[in-house]
Amino acid sequence: MSIDLEKLDGIGIITINRPERKNAFTRSQYEDLASALKEIDADDSVHVAILTGAGGAFSSGQDLKEMAEMATAVASGAPASTQPGGFTVLLDGLETFS
Questions:
Q1: Rg of the Cα trace of the chain?
Q2: pTM over 0.85, yes/no
Q3: pLDDT at 68
Q4: In CATH, which superfamily holds the domain spanning 3-96?
Q5: In terms of CB atoms within 10 Å, which of 71, 76, 88, 90 comes out highest?
């Protein structure tokens, strides 16, 4: 997993840990980040959340290599995913995070 969660003294620290790709997000990382937010939100001992990136970058954004691979697969006839996921799951998690 490239999303790490640590809890210390009421602080939840979420680290995007993929420095070799400048912490670029994959579809599964968006989902892992949403899960980490839900875990922090459900833990009454955590009062503050910090989101950080490993290495020298917070995040370079979307992993374009993964996006290109998905586009190539769809162009080759593979079905596009109709299931919500990735960034949509993260947005839903952020909307419910208190």
A1: 15
A2: no
A3: 78
A4: 2-enoyl-CoA Hydratase; Chain A, domain 1 (3.90.226.10)
A5: 90
